[in-house]
Amino acid sequence: MKIFFISDIHGSLYYLEKAIENYKKEAADFIAILGDELYHGARNDLPKGYNPKGVTELLNKYSDKIIAVRGNCDSEVDEMVLDFPIMSTYSSILYNGKRLFLTHGHIYGEDNIPKLMDGDVLIYGHTHIPVAKKENGIFIINPGSISIPKESNPNSYGILENNIFKIKDLNMNTFKELHI
Known about the structure:
The protein is α/β, with parallel strands linked by helices. It has helices spanning 13-26, 52-60, 76-81; strands at 3-6, 30-33, 66-68, 90-95, 98-103, 121-123, 131-135, 138-142, 156-161, 164-169, 174-179. A 6-stranded mixed sheet has the order 3-2-1-9-10-11, with helices on one face. A 5-stranded mixed sheet has the order 4-5-6-8-7, with no helix packed on it. The mean pLDDT is 96. Keywords: Hydrolase, Metal-binding.
């Protein structure tokens, strides 16, 4: 199974279209969205190609392939227009004997790691900063943001296949990698 991870779309149809192109090229089975699908939030400038309605339409085409969690900029109104649930604070996926704990990062994250077992994986967004490391037996991963990267990082996404998590820029160049 191959999982494509994106976070912090913030309503950018421009960057979502690039990400979906990469999802297809990667031939991933599922898309995991780590929150902040439609809106930019009060702390962010409008991202390039800001078009929440267009983002909704494009994401809905892939609704049967999407696993999503709620970000701090998401609301119940957003879930009313999306054809997949987004209002859960977290989701867990079992992957090759490991628990993948998916969350946005504003509740659970590096500063508030949930109760996980040794070897489990925390995957979050929110900070817009790519992370791939292991601390205290827990793998900690953030694929960064596809639309509003921070700290001079590239627009990025993650891909998980064969127990290898890669963080790539939108040109599909791997710049972080972690064997989980």
